[in-house]
Amino acid sequence: MKILKTAVFLGLFLMSGFAGATALSSYSFKDKAEEQAFRELTAKIRCLVCQNQSLADSDADLASDLRREIYALWKEQKSEDEILDFLVSRYGDFVLYDPPFKPSTYILWFGPFFLLIIGGYVLSRALKSKTKDKEVELTEEDQQRLKALLEDDNDNRETTK
Amino acid sequence: MSGRTRFLIPLFIFLIMAGFLLKGLFMDPRHIPSVLINKPAAEFNLPTLYNPEKFISKADMKGKIWMLNVWASWCSACRAEHQVLNAIAGMGIVDIIGLDYKDEAADGKRWLQQLGNPYKEVLVDKSGRTGIDFGVYGVPESFLIDGDGVIRHKFTGPIYYPDIKGVLIPKLKEIRGEGK
Predict the structure, then answer these.
(1) What is the pTM for the complete model shown?
(2) In chain A, ranges of CATH 1.10.8.640 domains
């Protein structure tokens, strides 16, 4: 139990640990809100060197260069879309954590729903076939036959005793 | 599907998934397809390593088929690639222009003195700004650029000997074939 606790704690620590560790201190912002907005923007962008880190968190050399470029565009009052376009035109959609909606990504967007529909269909069929088994109604004829068979069976048992 | 073969369905689904996962094992997540293929190369105007007064721009390369090789003295994969570049230069099949990326000029010069210089010119990108315009994310990278200044092929990571015959020569043939 203690080991489990330690493991969970360690896991949470590692997950949360390094976010925010990168200093944006070399850049000046007019207030906390602007700094937060800049942080949110760079968090949407994947660092190409260490692919599981966002540009906001990465200490890679390229990431700091890209932050510098983005900061320059930011100071020129460029919109978020313009800044993201700047990066996508050079590095492709891969830099975005949020994939854009277009024909090559349809499978990404619709795939799960498609699987959900298939799953729902399979489930409903499985459930239906199960309930059908229970609902078999016996006709008068069947009842009599059943009775006869059961009696027959009882007779047999008695005779074998 | 009859009841007899029904039990094969999960196995079948498993095999399909296993197939995808197996393919995934042999794919390189670091290889990101470049969006710059068949797009005009970025504009640049950079000083040369041996003469900081001399600048070369994209316009200067117009009409030539050339290869831009992004390298740095701090890049260990570049060391392995360098002998391949020397071989390409020795074959004389394409002019290679080096881009010394985020490097110290003295280190770059020492590197070329030790390992040989396959470059027709070496440009210096101290800030890495031109690298960003070329979508460079890991050195070495090489771009084949045609006479119209359009990027026709990109090598991400080092060029290996088999790539000369397998990729470089066919690509050059393709690019030159159009010119005729």
Answers:
(1) 0.74
(2) 2-100
